[in-house]
Structure formats: structure tokens, C-alpha cells
User: Fold WGS project CABT00000000 data, contig 2.27 from Sordaria macrospora.
Amino acid sequence: MSTTASAGPPATTPQFYPGYDTCHEVTPFCPVEYTTLGYYPNQGVNIFLAIGFGLCAIGTLAIGIWKKTWGYSIAISAGCILECAGYAGRAILSQNPWASSAFKTQIVSIVLGPTLVCIGLYLTLKHIVATISPSLSPFRPKFYPIFFVPADVSCLVIQAIGGGIAASAGKDNFGLLQHGNRVIIAGIVLQVVILGAFGGLSSIFLLRAKRHFGGFSGGVTAGEAGTETGTETMQKQTWTDKKTKLFLWAMAGGYACLLIRCVYRIAEMAGGWGNEIMQDEPSFVVLESFMVLIACVLFTVFAPGVWFPWMSHSDKVNPGLRMGMMGAQREGGVEGHEIGETTSSGNEKVVGV
Assistant:
């Protein structure tokens, strides 16, 4: 009885190593336990996740085009598209865990996707600070995207370098493989630190805003418009607006989910490739997949173009609220091009990243 190449090692091979370059399907010589994941991914769950991320990408992109929130929408949509591709790859692995292309696709996409989603989140803080009250922030609004976006990208670069080192180790250089894993973990730890710093600065600003506007009273009148009192009234109206509150809670919920996901990733990678945590599908689905999906759903449903229109490039913004932003610009010393620019008709135009 003859055997095919996929059924076992060639007779001329002195020692056979099950791997993605030598195994193409599950056989007695290439059992599923020898794959990095160590299991058949659940097809139904992964199809559901792929569809969920795909819908988030379409929804975010559609709202972004409608409301002209370019930077935020591009970052979130790109992250969702990568996540969709990653879980489509895992759905393929449910049929063949040794499918090398599908494995590489899901590894790269699921690592990269949340990084882009984080960029979309980081862009919101600049506009929240500039709109509500720049004077209450530890830093000027323009600082936040200038610092957090490159810092987040640097985490991705570090993880990519670690992946390259691990890939170059081959089958025999275990020490080099371990060094690559450590670099990857360093990139994930740095991402947690950056997320923590973002959460800390956001909390400082929001607590200051709560204290400041909690003790402020008064209503805006025509005579107050454009004065300091009128500016504070407009800022309080923005702070107490129900849509603003829902937007802030949605961003906070998405932030918490992304932070949980990154902390889980540290534990997952700490034991190296194919460790017990990495081969536990339920923990991956709950702490990785659904954490990122919940964040993306929140960022899509509570898109800033609808719930926080000051991030929009559209000039269809309530003139009274625009006036409040102009007052905040004078009070906080924010450069004009950061909050608004004058159109050819002389009207103030709200500008978002």
C-alpha cells in the first residue's frame, strides 16, 4: 500500500519535524496538537466574528463619509477590515489547522487590527479637550495625537521586529526564538503602558471637567455670547449634553475592552508559541476576540460624527455651538487651525482629524 507525502515523512528524510512547511493537513504524522493553536478553531464563532467586524467596517466607513470624520473612520474601518480577514483565516483553519497562509493571515491581522482601532480612539481625546475646555487639560489638545499615534505605531513595529527574529530562528535555534518572543512581549507591554497613559490623562481631564462644570450655573443670553461667561455656558452645555455623555461612556467602554485585550496578550505570549494559554480557545474568544469586537461595535454605533459632531469636517454644525468652540479657542490658547478655519463665505468651519 503506497502512502502520499501528506500521510507521513518521506523515507529519505532522517528526522521529520511537523511544521507548516512540512505538513499540509492533519495526518498521524501531523496531528492537530502540533499546530501552534493546537486545536480546530470553532468555525461558527469565527464566521460570526468575521461578519461582525465586516459590518463594523462598513458602518464606520459609511458614517465617516456621511459625517466627514476622516481620520477616525479610516483608522477604525482599517482595523475592522484586518480583524475580519483574521477571523476569516481562523474559519479556514477550522477545516485545516495546517493551512499555512490562513495561519499567517490570522496572526498578522489579529495583532495589527487592534493597533489601528487604538489610533481611532486616540484621535478623539484631542477634540474632546478642545471642545469641552482646553484649560482643564494637562496638555494642549494637539499634544495627544502627536504623542499617542506614533507611540502606538511604535508598538506595532517592535512586535513586527520580534516576529521577524522568531521567524528567523527556524526549528533548531531555540534561544533566538525566545529572544524574538521577548521582543514581541516588550511591544505588547509598551502598548499597555501607552493605553494606561492615555487612560490616565483622559481621567484627569474628565475629573477636572466634572468638578469645574459641577459648580457652574447660569444660562447663556444674547449679551453673553462670545464673552467668557458665554463661553463657559456653551462648554457646560456640551459637557451636560446627553449625546456627549453617551459618546464619552462608549469611548470609555471601548478603551476598557482594548486594555483587557492587551493585558491578555501579555499572558498569552509569556509562555512562548504554542503554550497552554495560547492553545485555550475559550479564553482567546472571550478576552481577545469579543473584547475587540465590543470595542469596535461601540466605536461604530456611537460614531463621533453623530454623537460628537465637533470631530466632523462638515460645516453643518449649530452656529451657537460653534461660537462656544471659538470662545474655548481663545480661552485655551488653541491654534485656530486645530479647532476651526474660516471658509470663503466667512463662516467658522469645524475641522476634525
